[in-house]
User: Fold this.
Amino acid sequence: MQWIEAIGREVLLWLARCGEAVILIGQTIKQLRQANWRHVIFQMAHLGVDSLPIISLTLLFAGAVMTLQITDILVRYGAQGTVGGIMAIAMGRELGPVLVGVVLAGRVGAAITAELGTMKVTEQIDALKVMAVNPIGYLVVPRVIACMIMVPILAFYGVLIGIGGGYVVATAFKGLAGMTYTDSIQLFAVTSDLTYGLIKASVFGAVIALVGSYKGMYTKMGAAAVGNATTSSVVTSIILVFVLNYFLSLLLY
Assistant:
């Protein structure tokens, strides 16, 4: 009987957390019209622009290593004229948005959870309520909007960097002509390969911000709780990025 009670408690706890998350999402949507755009721009710079170096390195080497792996196989079968197109489609549809989402889940999601979790532990969120300031509108909404704007921009930048890294490897190390690489992009890639990827990136941005905000707003008291919430935020965000990527790809493509 004890294990049944334990399972029942876990189920009730999980349902309570789902309810808290749904309430947070509903309050966030309700407060969107009252967003403070000065705070949004600050968050865009803090969460987005500061992520450029890690995005650049990640996508550059992702594009380079993918080109390194596929070029020899394609050349062997006489399909060297498809290298650039394959890279553009792969980066635009999947690698760009997913890798940017995973990287930002680790950097941005952790930062949001740590900030809000620290504010919760030090009772700054309670102080906002005492001053009649809605903590959802003041803290969560700017971060959600900033992530929904900046993640697609960073994904677009990452796609260009990844294709550029593939170009360097294909031409400098695999002996492929530069025109062959660029012409295949124009031949095989279409606009929707990029635009649908940016739609996915925007959804990933909203998920990362909401998960980070939820974990921070509902952090338990204590320094160790902030660390646990931050770890949980990163893991949950990465899992949701991969799960949502499948369903969005199924829907869009």
